[in-house]
Amino acid sequence: MSAPNGNQFWKLRSKHGRDLIFSSPTILWEACVEYLEATDARKWVKKDWVGKDAHEVLREVDTPYTLTGLFVFLDIERKTWDLYRQREEFIPVITRVEQIMFTQKFEGASVGAFNANIISRDLGLKDTSDVNVSDSRKAAADLFPLDESQKTD
Question: pTM of the prediction?
Answer without folding.
Answer: 0.67
